[in-house]
């Protein structure tokens, strides 16, 4: 599933290639992806306006438009990909659409399209049809963005209670943007056991975890996605810790499959 780094790359594609282009048509006929809006409702609200700003908090994107147009919310779901002309960002897998998909697949997987006056377009490719497009999305239940959260916010939101640290990192109302892979990568880099209770962590440990999380997130954005992390390719049967060589341990934390080094993550 696209996590913060993949969504940030998708947001950057919009910011770099779709702003200040006049919308002259909208294909919003996929009633599942565009729910609860009826076909034509999004088109009526956006046609004639310009995208002015591409924003993101955690895994949620939205675009501010010109005039009195509503905000356009975009969510990539499990395998979504934003394509603007020949530029793409989101799910890094080739099957998500773009130049590496044949024309038939591209047409079948296109769930939403903005057509621009200059002949270009912005499209949401989504093979699994789990993305969402909606007007004026509700962001009130999202916590601070994982890249922007302050030290004080991190201590307050992550360090309180008796839940496992990985489960807390995955709680989007506490901290927006961290998914399963980024949580495993961050905790491995920080040498913290995923099942450790947050109330056992000192403030200096929480501060270091925040620094590691920000560093791991920036690296994933730079290199193309969470899948580029040091631990990720070793998460699997017979996987070994990239640092010490110990066999990785597998379990479930926060309802998600979790891998960690039993020697270094304590």
Description:
The chain has 266 residues and is of the alpha+beta class. It has 2 domains: 4-135, Alpha-Beta Barrel (N-terminal domain of MutM-like DNA repair proteins); 151-260, Helicase, Ruva Protein, domain 3, CATH 1.10.8.50. It has helices at residues 4-17, 41-46, 103-109, 151-158, 165-170, 180-190, 203-223; strands spanning 23-27, 51-57, 60-65, 72-75, 80-84, 87-90, 110-116, 121-126, 132-135, 249-253, 256-260. The chain has a 5-stranded antiparallel β-sheet. Strands 2-3-4-9 form a 4-stranded antiparallel β-sheet, covered by helices on one side. Strand 5 (80-84) and strand 6 (87-90) form a beta hairpin. The protein is elongated. The two termini are 27 Å apart. The relative contact order is 0.14.
List the helices and strands and how they pair.
Blueprint: H1 4-17, E1 23-27, H2 41-46, E2 51-57, E3 60-65, E4 72-75, E5 80-84, E6 87-90, H3 103-109, E7 110-116, E8 121-126, E9 132-135, H4 151-158, H5 165-170, H6 180-190, H7 203-223, E10 249-253, E11 256-260
Antiparallel strand pairs: 1-7, 2-3, 3-4, 4-9, 5-6, 5-8, 7-8, 10-11
């Amino acid at each position: 599933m696209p996590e913060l780094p993949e969504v940030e790359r998708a947001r950057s594609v919009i910011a770099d290639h779709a702003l200040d282009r006049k919308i002259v048509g909208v294909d919003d006929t996929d009633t599942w992806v565009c729910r609860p809006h009826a076909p034509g409702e999004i088109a009526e609200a956006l046609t004639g306006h310009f995208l002015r700003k591409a924003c993101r908090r955690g895994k949620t994107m939205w675009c501010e438009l010109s005039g009195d147009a509503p905000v356009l919310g975009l969510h990539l779901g499990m395998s979504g990909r934003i394509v603007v002309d020949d530029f793409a960002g989101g799910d890094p897998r080739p099957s998500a659409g773009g130049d590496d998909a044949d024309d038939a697949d591209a047409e079948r997987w296109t769930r939403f399209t903005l057509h621009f006056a200059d002949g270009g377009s912005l499209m949401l490719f989504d093979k699994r049809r789990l993305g969402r497009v909606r007007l004026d999305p509700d962001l009130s239940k999202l916590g601070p963005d994982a890249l922007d959260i302050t030290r004080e916010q991190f201590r307050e939101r992550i360090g309180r209670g008796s839940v496992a640290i990985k489960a807390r990192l995955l709680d989007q109302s506490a901290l927006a943007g961290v998914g399963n892979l980024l949580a495993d990568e961050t905790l491995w880099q920080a040498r913290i056991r995923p099942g450790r209770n947050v109330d056992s962590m000192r403030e200096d440990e929480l501060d270091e975890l925040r620094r590691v999380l920000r560093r791991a997130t920036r690296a994933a954005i730079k290199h193309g996605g969470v899948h580029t992390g040091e631990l990720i390719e070793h998460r699997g049967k017979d996987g070994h810790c990239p640092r010490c060589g110990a066999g990785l341990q597998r379990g479930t934390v926060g309802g998600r499959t979790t891998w960690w080094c039993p020697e270094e993550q304590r």
